[in-house]
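Most newcomers find our protein records easier to grasp once they have seen one. To make this concrete, we reproduce a full record directly below:

…
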Amino acid sequence: METSGGNVIPAWVALQRQKRRRAHGGPRVPVPPASVSGLVLWLDSDTLSLSDLDPVDTWMDSSGVGNNVFQDSASAYPTYVQNQLNGHAVVRFDGVDDSLYSPPYGTLSMTEATVFVVRNAETWAAALSVAEEETVQEEYLVFDQSVVHHSEAFNYVELFHQDSHPGYFLQVGRFANGPLDLQSFLNGVASTRTVNVAGSPWGYNPVPRYVRVGGRAFGWQRFGGDIAAIVMYNRVLTDSERIGVEEYLNVKYALF
């Protein structure tokens, strides 16, 4: 029998934990995101000094780089919701017009990335887009149950995941420069699917990018659901680094 904080863990959860430990050679040790090099974006809902159900017009970046996101239209503000996920707040998007975005940042001129999103809602929508300003070019995209290397319209690579998580979950995308070198993880489990290729995508170029949380450019694929945290690095993390950050977020939000 396995316990956590004095509470008995369900057998199926304990089994999944054992499988992950065997796969990675031992216990998963939490590592704070700032302890791993290359951090360029960290949006943490706990840093928002708001009251329950307040509108969110600005979400400050905790990475130290200053890649903040905001919204200047009151009708498109998402909502701050307290004590929603293991005692932590989330930012809730309505799936209609809510989103937060940024100007183009030179610090996002990377040719590879690793992205972590703590979220819910498996809908045909975009939780995060990091692309050339107000375009879908050179885009790192975290979509429904997939991550997408999106060069431009009709030229992309998408990787879905075999698992379904109807509640809150941790979605991770590991984007190398080569279009086909794409990995997806849900709650620490790697995708076993084959990538889907459309058109002729190319490797990422080092161009400034803007951030849009809760959708994509042109009002496309607005996200309806909750986001508790987004963490992004400007490189492909090693397996041990990825696992450490995953476990930090897992322990904080009690996801898996």
